[in-house]
Amino acid sequence: MSLRLEHVSYIYEPGTPMEKKALEDVSLRVEKGEILAVIGATGSGKSTLIQLMNGLNKPSEGKVYFNDTDIFSENYSRKALRSKVGLVFQYPEYQLFETDVLKDICFGPKNLGLPEEECLARARKAMREVGLDEDYEKESPFDLSGGEKRRVAIAGVLAMEPEILILDEPAAGLDPEGKREILKKLNTLRDEQGIGIVLVSHSMEDVAQLADRVIVLEKGRILTQGTAREVFARREMLHTTGLALPVMSRLWEKLQEKGFPVSGQALSVYEAKDKILEVLREKGHV
Fold this sequence. Notes:
Layout: E1 2-12, E2 20-31, E3 35-39, H1 46-53, E4 61-66, E5 69-70, H2 78-84, E6 85-88, H3 101-111, H4 116-129, H5 146-158, E7 164-168, H6 176-193, E8 196-200, H7 204-210, E9 213-218, E10 221-226, H8 228-232, H9 235-241, H10 247-257, H11 269-282
Parallel strand pairs: 3-8, 3-9, 6-7, 7-8
Antiparallel strand pairs: 1-2, 1-4, 4-5, 9-10
């Protein structure tokens, strides 16, 4: 299972005075069981990219393949594609509309033409996957907290049993607890179900914690890519794009500037703690 873009470009309003190239010659691959983070400054092409992945827009140039089939080839069902490549927009809770949580999560499977029993079974399974127990079934989605609404919206996509899940700023606007819960669920979906996840985020901390690979977009092109550790080590390059380093990376940078003998980099609080304690033990301070 894979989603693949080959030499994709996209132009908005071609042939008009408003013509704008949003993406240029982008090639990438999303594999089963990995989290691919897409980062870049506002206007770098992130939103356009994920809409092409889901078949909402057709490339001006290049091809998009799902399981080695061109999704814009004749007779290819993009409705079926969207059950396999699920897209959760930023602030998806604004898309909730049913009278209760269970009906809202059933909406996608119903649109696939599945029988009611199958829709209910999928909806309840998806609820469990995002940490919502049966007590939520009859709750109005509008009475829930921000984090709970976000989980309902994600469950609505999971109920369609996607192989790839694309999320645009899934933790945006959530309180710390809601954010931790959402990010934890993404790890679980990757590790336990093997879902391929594409994560668009402005939070470098989220990317550092979650991503197996990172792609940096700048002005519609891929500037660089690699593991989170590799990408965040390219500090000067990121500075030129206006992207900040994760907080721990910035702390590490300051420690090194001040002469504290730590090497490499740290992407999390736990990693920083272990490395600092190691240095202090070597110097006999602990």
